[in-house]
Specification:
about 240 residues; alpha/beta; TIM Barrel; five-stranded parallel beta sheet; two-stranded antiparallel sheet; about 45% helix
């Protein structure tokens, strides 16, 4: 709550409160407290129900501790907290290692194929909360071109795998109005910089190696906006 309060007092127009690791009643209590303070200051709040595996900032949730959102809880949660949007857990995860090899199959290239997202949960949530903004966290696709680039230039990222883009596109066509992507951008920058240093070991000027890295991120973001999120021209 104190972190959200600092953001609100600092002039943020929206905040996110993630108390999804807490029991349901405690999640409601914490989220409601944030919502009341935020709404008093004209700030909207994104809340979370269902715990995602992986690491985000200082929060680490193991696969065993993660759990899907229970659709039968969403109406009560939204009604009691007054949140403005809801992040749900349908199989996404934080970081570049979203799934273990045991959770996946392998395609003809030997690459891991993750289990599909739980669209049945998303569909049920939409039925229970018609028109309500739904959010997906941990939705990087971990592009294999950048993983290979990193590994070919001194990196070591075996079996890094993310959410297939076609599944994210399907989610975006539903009630999901916000999809969080971060690891993909880190991979694009890191892969490009590693390749630059490998090809130009004499270089040291950040202006030289950051230029292609920024270009790679820009190209990736344009692709996500147009081909994955489908939000081009909607700003």
């Amino acid at each position: 709550f104190e972190t959200c309060k600092s953001c609100i007092d600092g002039g943020f127009t929206s905040v996110m409160i993630d108390a999804s690791s807490k029991p349901f009643a405690e999640n409601i209590e914490i989220t409601k407290k944030v919502v009341e303070y935020a709404h008093d200051h004209g700030v909207v709040v994104e809340a979370e129900l269902g715990a995602l595996a992986g690491i985000e900032d200082d929060v680490k949730v193991s696969a065993e501790e993660s759990h899907y959102t229970h659709p039968e809880e969403v109406e009560e949660f939204v009604a009691k907290t007054g949140c403005d949007s809801l992040a749900i857990a349908i199989g996404t995860s934080h970081g570049a290692y979203k799934f273990t090899a045991a959770q996946c199959t392998r395609n003809e290239k030997g690459e891991l194929v993750p289990p599909p997202l739980r669209f049945d949960i998303l569909d049920e949530v939409v039925k229970r909360l018609p028109g309500f903004p739904i959010v997906l966290h941990g939705s990087s696709s971990v592009p294999q071109d950048f993983v290979r680039m990193i590994n070919a230039n001194g990196g070591r990222m075996p079996d890094a795998v993310g959410i297939p883009e076609e599944q994210l596109r399907q989610a975006a066509r539903s009630a999901v109005c916000k999809i969080n992507i971060d690891s993909d951008l880190r991979l694009a920058m890191t892969g490009t910089i590693r390749q630059f240093f490998n090809e130009h070991p004499d270089k040291f000027d950040p202006r030289e190696y950051l230029k292609p890295a920024r270009a790679a991120i820009k190209e990736l973001v344009a692709h996500k906006i147009v081909d994955v999120l489908g939000c081009d021209g909607k700003a």
